[in-house]
Specification:
559 residues; alpha+beta; eight-stranded mixed beta sheet; six-stranded mixed beta sheet; 21% strand; elongated; binds adenosine-5'-diphosphate; binds magnesium ion; cytoplasm; ATP binding
């Protein structure tokens, strides 16, 4: 049987596509600018292959202009242009990407800079415009052509006048409706902001005529005049592509503030240029302060994700494990598989590799902070230590190996936060366990009778004052082969403790103990004599897994 081609109702398809693949209208500008940048890149590749074409970077730019009264937005580029056939094939055939074809035909292997690949971005213009006109003159051609369309109705092509090589795209911006406001796409400041947001790192200048006011020269009564000035809106060279040695701490801090990652100063930055199994650049920041909503459900972790300098996602959560959710910053990679809207990613190997890589870099940075800049680490721990402890506890302790070396607890002997490693290194030979005591505060724990015996023995005790502490430690179980032991547990592994109560003592006070147990019935399991008490007459102790503090926390939790 002969195979038949599918037919498509192209009008409907176009409408469906335009209105369903993009979640935000403003990205039409990103798409058109990306196309213009591709067109200039093609000039560059042409010049490499053809000696008669000269590529001088300063001659290439993209210009955005508005005519508010006529509701016209124009994008001009000095790129390679399109012939009549190319207008027909590239703008008349949905899902045909001239840019992808260009890369294949010219066997461009390092053509990562060329952004286009799906052949749909151009049509996003119809989200904001009811008429789109493209006038283009291709390189090596004497004639120019005009392509025009009102969207679903189809398009027309006719001869046109254009002096220079390149493309000019004119959008007639839609009228406002009751639900939708389109005026914003005629507003200079709004347009500038959209360009900054998505296209800041396009490698060619994006120019705009910007209106400002200035005092009239010679005027005495502060008279102002309006004037327009051409400005380059984008910063072009992204900081993450620059050489680390060229950049100062201040450069990174400026970037942090410009990007509004936080209003504080970053505590530390990490600049990664990875060139291995996966190629990417990243600039990450460890903030100094806990964001006000950090420990709430509202907080959303994630890094900005760029594909080739073009913003794809504002917050890509998959790039950060929860326990490093405080990290801010961005990742740029040319190796990502994007989906058609460029707003989402296929969950691919690349992304997983980058995430894993980033996790290790953050851990490495924190470890060196701990080792070399303890004061800074203390500050960091103050803000985000709790998150690390939650990290140890969550996912059934799966991440304890990543995190246990980063934990700190208050030490009874050092009177400051210490790591597990430091504790174990100081342990006398006869000490069997890592001792800890839980309580509301350092002061409260210090006064508690349970700590006496261990302290008198000269052993260090870690004070757990955070709800999560003991739960996290239960996940770790042991550190460098030393098990953790709560000072209030029955068997402390200390000699004086071994034969806790002699039958004699027990018998001597039998009546007293029975009377006490009776009074406290339902509150304690039994009343016993103990050798662990020094200056206190009595203390509570526990048997089994759950300690008193853990029970308190569990009871306080909502069911
Ligand atoms: P993509 O960019 O993914 O290829 P688009 O729908 O954005 O898809 O554009 C379709 C094609 O139209 C491009 O591949 C390119 O060949 C052509 N094109 C669009 N804009 C321009 C332009 N400003 N200059 C030259 N060619 C362009
Ligand atoms: Mg495109």
């Amino acid at each position: 049987m002969a195979k038949k081609q599918f037919k498509a109702e192209s009008k409907r398809l176009l409408e469906m596509m335009i209105n369903s693949i993009y979640t935000q209208r403003e990205i039409f500008l990103r798409e058109l600018i990306s196309n213009a940048s591709d067109a200039i890149d093609k000039m560059y590749y042409k010049a490499l292959a053809d000696e008669s074409v000269v590529f001088e970077k300063e001659n290439y730019y993209i210009k955005v202009s508005v005519d508010k009264d006529k509701r016209i937005l124009t994008l001009t580029d000095t790129g390679i242009g399109m012939t009549k056939e190319e207008l027909e094939n590239n703008l008349g055939v949905i899902a045909k990407s001239g840019s992808l074809a260009f890369k294949t035909e010219n066997e461009i292997k390092d053509g990562h800079n060329i952004i286009g690949q799906f052949g749909v971005g151009f049509y996003s213009a119809f989200m904001v415009a009811d008429v789109v006109t493209v006038v283009s003159k291709a390189i090596g051609s004497e004639e120019a052509f005009k392509w025009e369309s009102k969207g679903a109705d189809g398009y027309s092509i006719a001869a046109a006048e254009k002096a220079t090589v390149g493309t000019e795209i004119t959008l007639r911006i839609k009228e406002n409706t009751e639900e939708d406001n389109y005026d914003e796409y005629l507003d200079e400041y709004r347009l500038k902001a959209i360009i900054k947001k998505y296209s800041d790192f396009i490698r060619y200048p994006i120019k705009m005529d910007v209106t400002s006011h200035r005092p009239v020269e010679g005027s005495e009564d502060n008279e102002l005049e309006t004037y327009t000035e051409e400005q380059t809106v984008n910063s072009m060279v992204p900081i993450w592509r620059k050489n680390r040695s060229e950049l100062t701490t201040e450069d990174y801090e400026n970037f942090y503030n410009e990007k509004r990652y936080g209003f504080d100063k970053p505590l530390k930055h990490i600049h990664i240029s990875a060139d291995g199994a996966v190629v990417y650049n990243a600039i990450l920041f460890i903030p100094e302060n806990t964001p006000f909503d950090y420990y709430t459900k509202e907080y959303e972790k994630g890094l900005e994700l760029y594909s080739n300098g073009v913003l794809i996602m504002n917050k890509c959560g998959d790039l950060l494990p929860d326990y490093f959710g405080f990290v801010k910053g961005m990742v740029d990679s040319e190796d990502l598989s994007l989906n058609i809207s460029r707003e989402m990613l296929q969950h691919d190997r690349q992304l997983t590799l980058i995430a894993k890589n980033i996790k290790n870099k953050i851990k490495g940075q924190l470890q060196s902070l701990l080792k070399d800049e303890r004061e800074q680490y203390d500050k960091f721990y103050q803000a985000f230590g709790r998150q690390l402890k939650y990290g140890v506890y969550s996912d059934y302790g799966m991440n304890k190996d990543v995190l246990q070396d980063l934990l700190m607890f208050h030490s009874s002997t050092e009177k400051k936060l210490v790591t597990l490693d430091e504790y174990v290194a100081r342990m006398p030979e006869d000490q069997k366990y890592i001792y800890y005591a839980s309580g509301e505060s350092v002061e409260r724990i210090e006064k508690s009778p349970q700590t006496e015996l261990v302290s008198d023995k000269g052993y260090e005790i870690l004070y757990f004052t955070d709800d999560i502490d003991e739960f996290a430690i239960k996940m770790i179980m042991s550190y460098k082969e030393k098990e953790f032991k709560n000072v209030s547990s029955g068997d402390l592994g200390i000699e004086a403790d071994e034969n806790e109560t002699s039958a004699e003592e027990e018998n001597d006070n039998k009546d007293l103990f029975e009377a006490m147990a009776g009074l406290l019935s339902g509150k304690v399991k039994s009343v016993k004599a103990s050798k662990r008490l020094k200056s206190h007459p009595v203390c509570l102790s526990t048997e089994g897994e759950l300690t008193i503090e853990m029970e308190k926390i569990l009871k306080a939790m909502p069911n």
